[in-house]
UniProtKB/TrEMBL annotation:
Domain annotation YCII-related: ranges: 72-141
Family note: Belongs to the YciI family.
UniProt keyword annotations, A-Z: Signal
Organism: Adhaeribacter terreus
Protein name (record): YciI family protein
Source superkingdom: Bacteria
InterPro entries, per database record: Dimeric_a/b-barrel, YCII
Residues spanning the signal sequence: 1-25
Transport found in the keyword field: no
Length: 171
């Protein structure tokens, strides 16, 4: 009977060790003190991460632009409205091309008028894109550009937005 108990305990120990070792190979730990979390349980999607350009933290590099009031804001209402429409059309074009991930105005009418988040990795690339904006060309707006590190999930904002908008802002 003692041999059967020893054999049972040895078998149970081997089973537990095998289970523990196989689940340990599927875990990731954020730090040495944090409990391990299963990749499967986290919802990690390797294909989506690769598609969106995510690094191991689910992040990627962008360039953020602060749109500021430019030196030439004295256009009459008709010209200002035409520039605004052309500015919005340019935003839509850059979004369709996948170069502009997020754009929007600030609502406080201050010096900083809005933001862009460009899907590029250099200030030079973003600068070339800002130069296509008619409001920039006219001096109505100026851009301040900064490299920025944010969630790769932002790459899905434009597709989701299309499902939410009843009317396009440029219309």
């Amino acid at each position: 009977m003692k041999n059967c108990s020893t054999l049972f305990l040895a078998s149970l120990t081997v089973l537990l060790l095998n289970t523990s070792c196989s689940s340990t190979s599927k875990t990731v730990s954020a730090s040495n003190s944090a409990p391990a979390k299963s990749i499967e349980a986290s919802g990690y999607d390797a294909a989506l991460a690769q598609q969106l350009g995510a690094d191991e933290y689910g992040m990627k590099q962008y360039v953020m632009a602060f749109l500021k009031s430019g030196p030439n804001r004295d256009q009459d209402k008709t010209v200002a409205a035409a520039l605004q429409k052309a500015h919005l059309n340019n935003i839509n074009r850059l979004a369709e091309e996948g170069k502009l991930v997020v754009a929007g105005p600030f609502l406080d009418k201050g010096e900083v008028r809005g933001i862009y988040i460009f899907n590029v990795t250099s200030i030079e690339e973003a600068q070339k894109l800002t130069e296509t904006d008619p409001a920039i060309q006219a001096g109505r707006l100026v851009m301040e550009l900064h490299p920025w590190y944010g969630s790769a999930a932002l790459m899905q904002v434009n597709d989701t937005h299309k499902k939410l908008e009843k009317k396009n802002v440029a219309e």
